[in-house]
């Protein structure tokens, strides 16, 4: 009888232990459903050209993340279009992307972490020309940014909305610095540039006597037709109060810079 009771007690103990293990396993499984995974220790970001703001901001992020033992690897690029392709191809984890650069096909593959700031569209031209709107750019030599840049995508969209095609003007794929030098030298007539007002290239062009900046008088129409654009203003004297640059308020269009 004692032997039988001992076997039953042992059996009960095994059942109890097994049930406890099952409960503990279930508890761990439940907990893991709500516990955030540890952050990665290495992240790759596609920034932009080494002369642009994206590249500078990437290095600021690199310093901040290093303080938290996270390594940020920075890859320069031609711009937003190349950054999007790298994201889609899985070559990088995050990237700077300019509003208006993506297309519907890629939207379901990407997630925006937030808009960072406005990036105005600057349309500079030689002061000797009469330019009141994009329609006045017909038959001109126009720098629209290199292949892979967000500037090129947005510039072509604005030109097409105004009835331009490949025969309407000579479109040149120059970088910001290249196009600024060509405009100042008189080798091109117009340039599109998307950059911060703090950009050295923007400041150079705003303070060059023979260069003018176009005001987008139909800004409200452009923002209705292109929801990624916003109307912003460059106040009179904001660049240089002493020299009153610009000498009047300028209306600009601006997409946002996004971390994707």
Q: Explain this structure to me?
A:
The chain is α/β, with parallel strands linked by helices and 260 residues long. The protein has two domains: 76 residues, D-Maltodextrin-Binding Protein, domain 2; 139 residues, D-Maltodextrin-Binding Protein, domain 2, CATH 3.40.190.10. The protein contains eight helices and twelve strands. Helix 5 links the parallel strand 6 and strand 7. The chain is globular. It starts with a helix and ends with a strand. The model has no long low-confidence stretch (mean pLDDT 86).
Question: How would you summarize this macromolecular structure in one to three sentences?
Answer:
The chain is of the alpha/beta class and 260 residues long. 36% of the residues lie in helices and 21% in strands.
How would you characterize the largest beta sheet?
Answer: 5 strands, mixed
CATH architecture of the largest domain: 3-Layer(aba) Sandwich
SS element count, helices: 8
* Strand residues, percent: 15-25%
- Spatially, the strands of the biggest sheet line up as 2-1-3-12-4
Q: Into which percent range does the helicity of residues fall?
A: 25-40%
Assigned CATH superfamily of the largest domain: Periplasmic binding protein-like II
Kindly report the CATH topology of the largest domain. Answer: D-Maltodextrin-Binding Protein, domain 2
SSE arrangement, N to C: HEHEHEHEEEHEHEHEHEEE
Number of strands: 12
What are the main properties of this structure?
5-stranded mixed sheet, 12 strands, D-Maltodextrin-Binding Protein, domain 2, 2 domains, alpha/beta, 260 residues
């Amino acid at each position: 009888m004692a032997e039988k009771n001992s076997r039953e007690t042992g059996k009960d103990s095994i059942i109890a232990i097994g049930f406890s293990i099952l409960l503990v396993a279930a508890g761990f499984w439940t907990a893991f459903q709500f516990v955030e995974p540890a952050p990665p220790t290495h992240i790759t970001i596609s920034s932009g050209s080494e002369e642009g703001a994206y590249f500078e901001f990437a290095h600021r992020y690199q310093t901040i993340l290093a303080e938290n033992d996270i390594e940020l690897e920075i890859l320069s690029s031609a711009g937003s279009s190349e950054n999007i392709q790298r994201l889609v191809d899985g070559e990088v984890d995050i990237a700077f992307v300019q509003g208006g650069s993506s297309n519907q096909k890629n939207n379901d593959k990407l997630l925006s972490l937030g808009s960072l700031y406005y990036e105005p569209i600057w349309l500079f031209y030689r002061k000797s020309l009469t330019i009141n709107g994009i329609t006045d750019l017909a038959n001109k030599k126009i720098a629209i940014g290199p292949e892979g840049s967000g500037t090129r995508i947005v510039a072509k969209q604005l030109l097409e909305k105004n009835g331009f095609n490949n025969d309407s003007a000579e479109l040149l794929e120059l970088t910001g610095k290249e196009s600024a030098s060509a405009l100042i030298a008189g080798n091109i007539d117009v340039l599109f540039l998307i950059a911060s007002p703090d950009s050295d290239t923007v400041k150079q062009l705003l303070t060059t006597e023979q260069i003018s900046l176009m005001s987008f008088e139909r800004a409200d129409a452009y923002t209705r037709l292109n929801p990624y654009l916003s109307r912003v203003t460059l106040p009179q004297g904001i660049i240089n109060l002493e020299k009153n640059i610009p000498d009047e308020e300028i209306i600009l269009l601006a997409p946002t810079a996004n971390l994707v």
